[in-house]
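Good morning N.,

You mentioned wanting to compare the apo and holo forms, so I went ahead and generated the holo version with 1-deoxynojirimycin. This is what I fed in:
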Amino acid sequence: MAKDWYKEAVIYQIWPRSFKDGNGDGIGDLEGVLEKLDYIKSLGVTAIWFSPLYPSPQADYGYDIADYKNICPEYGDLELFKKVLDGAHERGMKVIMDLVVNHTSDEHPWFKESLKSKDNPYHDYYIWRRGKGKRPPNNWLSMFEGGAWEYNKGLDEYYLHVFAKKQPDLNMDNPKVREEVKSIMDFWLSMGVDGFREDVITFISKQDGLPNGFPLPIATGIEHYKHGPHLLEYLTEFRKDTLEKHDCFMVGESPLTGAKDALELTSGKDKVLDMLISFDHMQADCFMTDTVAVPFSLNRMRKAFDTWQEKLYGKAWNALYLENHDHPRIISRYGNEKFRKESGKMLATMCYMQCGTPFIYQGQEIGMVNNNLSSLSEFKDVVTFNNEKLFKKFGFSEEQYLKIANKTSRENARTPVQWDSSAYGGFSTTEPWFSVNPNYTEINVEEAEKDPDSILNYYRKLLKVRQNSELFLYGAFKDLLPKDEKIYCYERTLGTEKALIICSFSDTMCTFRTPGDYDLEKGELLLCNYPDAPAKAHICALRPYEARVYYYPKEK
Ligand code: NOJ
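and this is what came out, ligand included:
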């Protein structure tokens, strides 16, 4: 398999607003990032991905950009960004920017121009259409906020927004828009940035004629843009005209994309992206979106991981993640807060010992869990507000929806990082923009540093094991117990070198019998989330959420 730096990378995601406040205004910023670069490096991280840092009205916390070539004053300025970039590079870490070009903010100067008249050269930067009588141009619903069309009286036209109203979709069919995208890429790459995480990049091409979609409670019409007709063509253009000139890494966020589509975009010499942020494995406890919760199913999760591992191996590359700013905390979902340490470590083992590039989201490495707000008025996100309307429409009470939001909202991942047990979790010296999880007195970086048995120190150990091994970086993957109801067990193999990974998803003891001819007494125990690992050759008892990794060297 061809080697590449990104295949051996460990990527740490910073959602800047909640990472660390360096200037005491209650909002995370680049000063704060600068302070923590050594900490990030100490995890074994080799690249940082920044969620959007650009000027923005923050209607979707930065995913609504008003200026692509600058830094949001709340976070710092270009000079400070360069300091962070240099600081990361000096420590051997790359920097990846979020590139959000499916849409802009409605406060972007392009959109303001486009509102002026139908003849304005920027009008065609966006997707404007006449209505059908008094109705919008089609039946599409947005992902975030009711209908996908917003009417403008002066122009007597509607603009398309598949996300919030304040996020008008760009018209990527306009070659001038594509030139703008290339110019944005060029701007950051020339400054020394090493790549992009491309936000909902698979949505940029809409079906010609914008036909009606299959009616759904949200996102009606999605089948007409989730992998549109010109997607490959536009991404190829970006790669050929701009990205190839730099040693640039590209990871594309791709909701509703299966492993087959992934091969189209990320394999072969003409691949347009290096890997995808897929969603299949994040749907083991929900239906379509996180908000529609169903009981966790190990089988669903396993099937998703297995499919991506098996279909991509040797052809394309996986992004391995369990958390980001769009999902609740993983221990509260697939793990168990009562076994926070055990399940936090087990989940990391389960995910990051697979083949692909680990992505770690801020706070995940100390086992942060979901928050529990006491009133809906404390929430901050457009998605929570929209879901509130939807759930109420379906007859849910305020109290019932509060429970749902506390369990399923992405805001669970957006509480400030808990650095120590001082006021506000050491995130800021003043009241932060969003509430700190009250458990910060116990769950925080300072505590975790002191505890050799912490989730944090386990992450460090795990990443070291992984990074120093060709087997874990490039070895083949095979699920060995594809039907087990409690245990996820797989092997990694490279020639005759092997590893056996055993992860229990049970909150009680269970019995593990080795598959094939694996002998636990002959293996070297590389990782375990309990202090000891008693075993006979072919059988052992697994404690709640136990994880073990056994190593079998090359046969001589
Ligand atoms: C995906 C981003 O990760 C999410 O946070 C954002 O709200 C939407 N795209 C819209 O940009």
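The chain has a mean pLDDT of 97.

Happy to go through it together on a call whenever suits you.

Best,
F.
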